[in-house]
Amino acid sequence: MSDPQHSVLLNTGSRMPLVGLGTYELRGLEDIMLTVDAALAAGYRHFDTAAVYSNEVEIGQALRELLPKHGLLRADIFVTSKLGPRDQGPMAPAACQQSLDQLGLEYIDLFLVHEPGTEGLRVEDPQNSANRAQSWTALEEFHSRGKFRAIGVSNYTVRHLEEVLASCKVPPAVLQVEFHPRLVQTELRALCAQRGVCFEAFSSLGSGALLSDPAVLEVAKGCGRTVAQVLLRWAVQQGIPVLPKSCNASRVRENGQLFDFELSQEDMDKLTGLDCGQRYDLDPTSVA
Ligand code: A2P
């Protein structure tokens, strides 16, 4: 998985590994050390955290302590973090610096605005849009100083993405959104492809709901792989980076084994045919 071929080229010229460890709900230094250790051993070179996950300090410490054990340098891994919704707008510059400090890193490979809304504002409040613009300016400034190697957005709809594309100095390198066979995000993917933004998936397992889908089970049985591997492979086979999150070392290993098998076109189409617009995570559609 650490093979450079298993990565995507961003509009910054840097490469981002196709598989990253999602770390939402991963807490406590002991568990984080075990999980990050298992991930590095399994070949993961991409780690995705966020200010709101409240684990930046422990993720940073785990990486600092474990990289030498695996014979790796900082430059061998790709770290993503995100600006929390309570820090949108005037608070953004201080929050950007805080993520760098908490992770204990000289630079972050990719830094995202976590969601279009601001905590404490009603979704229809136009201040949401003004705050997003101010946040983006802060990310651009950290990017220009080399502190954020790439910048992007998360949970943005077509409208939010078009807004930042129309007003930015530095275009987003990545859009990270919920993506799985029940939510194939056709319009957002087309916009990303057209504007050179890398489309990245979270919740590939539909927060676990897709693990018992009969059609996915059938595909898994047919190719002798686990349901989680089939769901993750369906995305990476389309060139879409995935961020499986697991607090369990053996599932971390399982989720990383995606490049030694291929789904047939028939199976790919069968999975894509499950689309029904179902979300298991936050719905950002109505945020002004
Ligand atoms: P756990 O941490 O106990 O492994 P999603 O990424 O769609 O939000 O799904 C994450 C959920 O799926 C987590 O609750 C995680 O639980 C579980 N999960 C992650 N990988 C696997 C796997 N390979 N098989 C079964 N469940 C998994």
TrEMBL record:
Residues marked Lowers pKa of active site Tyr (site): 82
Residues involved in substrate binding: 114
Family matches, as InterPro entries: AKR, Aldo/ket_reductase_CS, NAD(P)_OxRdtase_dom_sf, NADP_OxRdtase_dom
Molecular function GO terms recorded: oxidoreductase activity, acting on the CH-OH group of donors, NAD or NADP as acceptor
Record Gene3D superfamilies: NADP-dependent oxidoreductase domain
Name of the protein described by the UniProt record: NADP-dependent oxidoreductase domain-containing protein
Keyword match Oxidoreductase: yes
Family recorded in the similarity comment: Belongs to the aldo/keto reductase family.
SUPFAM superfamilies: NAD(P)-linked oxidoreductase
Every NADP-dependent oxidoreductase domain range: 20-274
Active site, UniProt feature: 53 (proton donor)
Keywords: Oxidoreductase
Species whose genome carries this gene: Alosa alosa
